[in-house]
Structures are given as structure tokens and as C-alpha cells.
Amino acid sequence: MTDPAGIAVSEFGTQPAGEERSAGQDQVRSLWSDAWDSLRRNPLFWVSSALILVFLLMAAAPQLFTSADPFYGDLAVARQPPSAEHVFGTSSQGYDVYARVVYGARASIMVGLLTTVGTVVVGSVVGLVSGFYGGWLDALLSRIGEVFFAIPLLLAGILAAYLFQPGPGSGLVSQVLRVVAVLVVFGWPSLARLMRGSVLQVKPNDYVNAARALGASAPRLIVRHILPNAVAPMIVVATINLGTYIAVEATLAFLGIGLRDPAISWGNDISIASSIGLVRAAPHMLLFPSLFLSLTVLAFIMLGDAVRDAIDPKLR
Amino acid sequence: MSETLQGAGRPVPAESSWTPVDGRLLDVEDLFVEFRTRDGVAKAINGVSFSLDEGETLAVLGESGSGKSVTAQAIMGILDSPPGFITGGRIRYCGTDLLGLTEKQRREVRGPEISMIFQDALSSLNPVFPVGWQIAEMLRVHRGANRSDAREGAIRLMERVNIPAARQRVNAFPHQFSGGMRQRIMIAMAIALDPAVLIADEPTTALDVTVQAQIMALLAELQEERRMGLILITHDLGVVADVADRIAVMYAGRLVETADVHPIYAAPAHPYTKGLLASIPRLDQKGQELSAIGGLPPNLTRIPPGCPFNPRCPYAQDVCRHDPPPPLIEVRPGRRSACHFTDRVLADSEVEFDHTHPGAQEEGR
Amino acid sequence: MSREVILSARDLVKHYPIRTGVLRRTTGQVRAVAGVSFDLYKGETLGIVGESGCGKSTLGRLLVQLERPTSGRLAFGGTVEDLDAGAPDVVDMVAADGNRLRQLRRDVQIVFQDPYTSLNPRKTVGDIIQEPFDIHPAVEPRQGRRRRVQELLELVGLNPEHINRYPHQFSGGQRQRIGIARGIALNPKVLVCDEPVSALDVSVQAQVVNLMERLQDELGLSYVFVAHDLSVVRHISDRVGVMYLGSMVELGDEEQIYERPTHPYTQALLSAVPVPDPTLRGRREEIVLSGDVPSPANPPSGCRFHTRCWKAQDVCAVEPPPLAPRPDGVSAHDSACHFAEPRTIVETVDVS
């Protein structure tokens, strides 16, 4: 309590919050349902969720959004500006830019989701183990993490992508998994550090001691008491990271070392569209994939912000 | 802090003209403060009036949420706004309503005239500056002292609050001091500009008893020496009995009883005060039965209608639940109580609290 | 009161290593508990008082096996001497593991100070109080647990219908009742209470103290009541131990400690406690100690109190006085001072 205001607020904090409130309203109010309540009242949450929903749908079923074939190039209509027939115009190969953008969502979303799942799983397991057990195990895991952490994600991606080039014509999934693997290997340490930090904060709490005094086993302590109270910051950062991973994938593709034909990727298309001459001749080729990429990244970052505000208003 | 509330544009007396009116330093009249939070409006202070004279120690006694700390913040002008708003009342210092002053004018009162010490000395001191520098800063900013004079002044102040080897420790940092020593440094800062009013908000709650005794003795000594008005905010009935001249008991943002220190311990006139005294264990008694006050202090966003204490009060009747809260009225000379049944409470207390120390009765009563 | 020993400690020591530098080398020891011995009798309350850093909380954590002692003995069900004599039903707490340890955890439980950090904020009250049964399934069959939890809620004075609420929906005093319910769920014989009321509002403290006294009568519990508030400790305790810098400096009946203290530290401590009675103002003798408590990483030689003691002589800096019975004017009780003599600090009024 540094400032007098803190004292004032904490005075109210000690009030029996639910005592009278409960009469007419819900009897049961967990911290998660409180968080959901405040999330629901946040317009940022609804805007970002709507956007994400659209992109998810686009990734799952692109046919719903366009009947055009993203691989059908008609050189006769190359580099045309937006028109009624091609709403986003056509590319220098004569592809329909709208169809390319729609089909490109799948790669980006897959990379974002899978990388997030991977980093969260590896990061939380490592973070939990090193935070809970401490000692030499913590020292070892932390040093390993630091080694990967010291290499910038992008630099690592460039290196790894050069070293492990995909065979010509390999499919979308295997290409995506390659990129995901690289991002996970170099992305988990930041989440592990985060998790370790929260575990160290939760561990000394007396409810953990109370369970230890009752004879609770280590797995029980971790699963019942530590994880539920340590997971919140992880959720927030993972959501924001999801957007970041999508941007990193696009950057790799832009540099020509991420996803490549036949996979359709926004980064790849942006790369082609930004070659000299094309930017001025066909700016729509650059504009639309960039716009979609930015919107997707923005949506996830906004969602992360909204979730953070809901979980812990003090972090704002 | 609302500057437009009332009396805006009132001419502010020059520094020298802050003189008490008939010995009266501070007059708080009908103060209202609320906090507008997400969960509703918390009515933290609901019509509080009291005064403070030169050289007087007023203890404001209450539990958490009673509004005692908020009162202090309102007087100091350090209420966080939003969420806190002063919605009514006046705080007169030497006759001038502080609520009508501009922020700049308030700053000139805060420190040289009214200053404050907090419960948590560690977080009230800046960890990256030496303590001597922090004390000297007060003298530089308000008195325009030069560096070496301010430093000497800081050392003298540290010596005054009995910090051993002050000259050697003037460049030490807050974390290098123990809790009691940090509280002494806070006190040195608070008295640096010779304020007329010192507000101490739970100054010893975080300290061990032996250190608490040292700090309270120091405060009493300083007050005597400088004729300060001291407002001691606390929940500790023991500390109050040792140092206070007068006591104001707060409950749910209201004063429920004010009196001189002796009569209130001998026979409390409000059921809440009576309940508190009956519920604390005493070091000097054995075989004591603690009669606890039932229930809980109210949630300030939903203060019960009628007298706010009625759900916990053994004297409560229908009138307590339906009529507006009873006003604080004089029940004996110098004693005020806000209860419909003060006389009955007093009569009961006089019987119940009649076991003071042998030989102690003739004094003090 | 039957004088049957339920828990016993001998020369209990707990050191925490101080590690510094990159290599985390041990450069010193914080001597949190430095050789404490006592017996806890069945059905009694033993108060442990002292200022912050005196090791009283560490002692509590040693008793419930949240920490392992660096050295020393702990016996349950009798004294350490009984244990060495091979008495049946006396358990060596330090050596216990496996099933023995599980049984000990049922028998010795703890209530924590801070009702805000001692309950898992993401679990319902029902889950919190039921956890003891989930960890020790033999105590209560699965189908009976919910009902048992409701009984416990009722026993500690809470509404059993609130079983599905979360801790943040309760006030501090109510949360402390929940903590107590969890502590007594397994029918322990000993409950260690670490500052159980010091975080509560004044008007609520008495409710919880009275609850603890009632539960002791109803369930025949023995309490180790660790607190810094000497008034509360006097009220609830049958016997009291005073700790300073990791050592027990005085141990005796409530009356002996409060009315006839013989150790200078106890006397100073008692004299500093403010009494809610303005008529005593200026009449109470105040012994003001100089200086601060020394660091437990580097405690003074000999008697640990000699640096602040007005009675200290040369011998005090050399020879640590043992905790042994010393005359207190009426009888004798344990005190660790070479120059122990009784002195009335608090004039006691019997109001029973």
C-alpha cells in the first residue's frame, strides 16, 4: 500500500462482499465467472471475437466466402484493379486476390494456433516444474531456456528455415508443421519464464501450505492449487502471442523462407506484391493481404488485452 | 478534489496569518465522502463533524471500513479522485475552508501546516533516495534552504526522533533501517516544517509492542514540545487509552460517540463502543468473558436503513430500523452519542464496567 | 486438567541457510529456532508469544511438519523421554514417514494467520473443507463427505447453505472460520494456531476467540496458540512460553508469566502492552528497551538478550542461561536468566 488511495480501496476490500449482495443475485460467483462478467461488458472483447470468428471460419471453410479458385491464374486479366468480377483485383499471375486472401487465412491461423498450443504446453510444463521444485532442476531448465531466449525469434526462424528447407511441392500441413516446430522451439522460454514467475508467487500462499500440512501429494498441489492460480497471466500472453506468431510467419514467408507454393500464405503474397514496380502498378495486390494480416494480428492482441482486463483489472 | 465546491476565489491568507481562532485549529463540519466504484457508490463518510484544538490529541477510533482513514485523507487533500469524491461539508483550518482552496494553495498547507504519517513506513519512503536526502528535500522545497543547511537540518531532525548515530546514517537508504527506525524517519519528515496539525494513521499497527511503546512515547513528547494538534487514527483501544485527550468513535462512516477519554472507558454511551470494550481481552484481567459483537460491519454500498449499527445492536428496537440514523447529541457535558437509547446504555455501562484497578478510581474520574 | 503429554519437543533447532553469489554458496545460517523444548498437555492451550522474528511461527511450522527440524526431537502421544523408553503409542515425529506421517498429519493440524491467503480463491468453500477428506479418504466415506462438510460449517457458525460460495464472498472473520473448519475436519488432537485473530477487525476477534474456546471444550483439542498479542494470549492460554531470538526465555502457567514474570525480556514485553484503561495512564511502569532485536543470522553470544538487558553482567555475554525452574516469589517456574527475579508489571484484576 504505497499511496493513501490504496489504503482507502483496501478498506472496502475487506468488506463482506457477497454477504448482502447474494440475496437476489447469483449465489455462486467464482473468480472465473467474475472475469467472464466483466469480459462480457467489454466492447473490445466482442469486436475482437467477431473478427476472430470470421477468420476462423475462413480458415475452416474458405468455400463459404468465395467460389473462385485461388490457383486459377488467367494471365489475360493480370494486375487488374478491383472490379465487380474481382472485388480485390487480380495479381500479376492473374489470380483472384480475394480468393487468395481468403484461402491464405488457413495457413496463418494454423501457424498461430498450433504454435500457441505448442509453446503453452512446453512453457507451462517447464515453468511449473522449475518453479515448484526449484533447486538444480530449476537452474538447469532456466539456463536451457535462456539459451533459446537469447536468440531472437525471427533470427532463429530464418536460420532454421534455411537449414531445414522443405522438399519441393510438399503440402500445406507439413510446411506449416515445419514453421510451427521452429517457432515452438524458440518461443517456449518466454512462456516458461512467465509461468515460473507466477508459480513462485502462488507457492508461498498459505492455502498451498495448508494442503501440504494435510499431506497433499506434489501432483495434487500442482493441479489443484498452483496451476489454477498461476495460469491467468499465461492465458493473456498466449492470446497476444498468437497474433505475434502469425506476424512472424508472414515475415518468414515474406523473406521467402516460410510457407511457399503450393501453400497460400499472406506473407508470401505480400512478398510477391511488394517487388519493385508492382507496388505502384498494382497496389491492391499488396493492400488486401496486408490488411487481412494486420486485422488478424490486431484481433488477437485486442482479445488478449480484453482478457487481461477481465482477469486482473490491476494489470491495466 | 473539487475546487469549485464552495468558497472558490476566497482570498488566501499569507503564510503568517495561519493562526488558530481561539485555540481551534481544525473544524470538520458535516463531511460527506463517497467512492464511485464498479460495484456501486460506497458511502464512506456520512456527515462527520469534529474539531481539534492546539495541543490536543484526538483519537479517531474505528475498524476497517469505518471511514477513519478516508477522513484523514480528506483533511490532507490526498483523496484519490476519482473514485473518491467529497460531496458535502467543510474542513476549516484556522477559519479557512480548505475545500475552497486551489491545489496549489492546498500544497502550501500540506506539510508546513498539516502533515501526516502512515502505517507502512517502508512503502511511504522512496527506496532509491537516502533518508537524509528525503528529509532535507522538505526543507529545500518549502523553506528554500540550501543543500548543506538542509542536510544539517535533516541530521538534527533525525537526532530529535532518537535515531542513533544520525550523522553517520544520514546517507543510508530506507531498507537499511528497521521498521521502528523507518517510522521515526517518517515522523522526522512529518515534523520537519513544524506543522500545527499532525495526523497519524495507524502509526504503530505494523510494529512490535516494544517498538510501539517507543514510537507512541516519541509522538507524545513531540506533541508536548511543539503544541501540535494530533489526530491519532487507530483501531487499538489500548493505545488510545494511553495517549488520547478526546476520542471520536466511527462506525460505517459516522461518528457514533465522542467524549473525553476517561468517561468513555468508564461508561461508554453508545452500544458499539460498549460492545468493543466488552469484546477486547485485557492484559490486566483474568477470568474475563469476551462478549463478542455479533455480525459484521456493513458493506458501505449497502448501509442498512435506520441506525447503521442496528443489525448488530442488542438495544435495537423498531425505531432504530425505521427512523433516520440518530444524530450525535450531547448526553452529558462534553459527551455526545448517536443512539436512541443512550441513557439505557449509559446506565448499563456504569454497572458493567465497574471493575477498575484498586486505588485507581480516585484519579482520572 | 489431566497432565497427560500429547506433544513434546526437545532442543528443537531450525536453521535456514543464507546463500549468496552466483554459485549460491551457503555463507551463513539464520538461526530461526535455536533449541526449544516444551511439553504440550492434553486439552490445554499453550500460548507462544514473542515479537516478529523470534521464531514463533517457524516453531509452529515445525510442529505441523511444514518444515523439517535441523536437529532436535519431536514426539507425539507422550514425551520424548517416553519415546526413548519405548512406550507404545508414542510416535517419533521427526523420523515418521509413509503411513505414520499420514496419521500424524491427521492428528496435528494448523490454522493460518491471514484469512485472505490461506484459502484457495478458485475453490468453493465446500471443496476447501472437503479437501482433507479427499487426501485422507479413510476418514469419511465418499458419500458422507458433503454432509460432513455442512456439519463442519455449522459447527464453526457458518450457514451450511453457503457451501458452494467462494472465499471472496466472505468477510475476514468468516474466512477464518472456514480455515478453522478445515483444520478440525480430520478430528486432530492438536491444533497449531498461527496468529489466528491478528488479521481480524477488533469487533470480530472476540467471535473467533470464543469459537476456538468452544471448539476446544467440545472436541477436547489441545492448542498451540502462536501470537504477538499478549492480551489475547493471556485470555486463551493455560500456559505461556515467551520467545526471543529463537529461544524460549520463559515458560510457565498463565498466572506465573503474567503476574510473576522473572525474565527481564518478559517484563519489558508486558510493560509495553497498552491497557485499555486511561486511569492507569502514567501509573504503569514502562520498561523501555533500547535498540533493536539483533539479527538471527548473527545472534549475540551467551544470553541472547544481554545486548538489550539492563541487568546484564559479564557472565551473560559468555554463558547462556538454561531454561530451568527459578523461584518467582510464590512457587518456581522455568526462566532462562542468570538473575531471574519476580517483578510485578501488570496488576491483575480477577473478574471471573
UniProtKB/TrEMBL annotation, chain A:
GO biological process: one example: transmembrane transport
InterPro entries according to UniProt: BP-dependent_transpt_permease (IPR050366), MetI-like (IPR000515), MetI-like_sf (IPR035906), OppC_N (IPR025966)
Highest taxon of the lineage: Bacteria
One Gene Ontology cellular component: plasma membrane
Membrane topology field: Multi-pass membrane protein
Tagged with keyword Transmembrane helix: yes
Cell compartment(s), UniProt: Cell membrane
Assigned keywords, A-Z: Cell membrane, Membrane, Transmembrane, Transmembrane helix, Transport
Recorded family membership: Belongs to the binding-protein-dependent transport system permease family.
PANTHER family registered for this protein in UniProt: ABC TRANSPORTER PERMEASE PROTEIN, OLIGOPEPTIDE TRANSPORT SYSTEM PERMEASE PROTEIN APPC
Annotated protein name in UniProt: ABC transporter permease subunit
Organism: Auraticoccus cholistanensis
Lineage summary: Bacteria, Bacillati, Actinomycetota, Actinomycetes, Propionibacteriales
From TrEMBL, chain B:
Pfam family, one: oligo_HPY
Subcellular location(s) per record: Cell membrane
Molecular function per GO: ATP binding; ATP hydrolysis activity
PROSITE patterns: ABC_TRANSPORTER_1, ABC_TRANSPORTER_2
InterPro entries: AAA+_ATPase (IPR003593), ABC_Ni/Peptide_Import (IPR050388), ABC_transporter-like_ATP-bd (IPR003439), ABC_transporter-like_CS (IPR017871), Oligopep_ABC_C (IPR013563), P-loop_NTPase (IPR027417)
Family recorded in the similarity comment: Belongs to the ABC transporter superfamily.
Designated name of the protein: ATP-binding cassette domain-containing protein
Protein source organism: Auraticoccus cholistanensis
From TrEMBL, chain C:
Positions of the ABC transporter domain: 18-270
Biological process according to GO: peptide transport; transmembrane transport
Stored SMART domains: AAA
Top-rank lineage group of the source organism: Bacteria
Protein name, entry field: Dipeptide ABC transporter ATP-binding protein
Lineage: Bacteria, Bacillati, Actinomycetota, Actinomycetes, Propionibacteriales
Keyword tags: ATP-binding, Nucleotide-binding, Transport
Keyword hit for Nucleotide-binding: yes
GO molecular function, one term: ATP hydrolysis activity
UniProt similarity note: Belongs to the ABC transporter superfamily.
Protein's UniProt keywords contain Glycoprotein: no
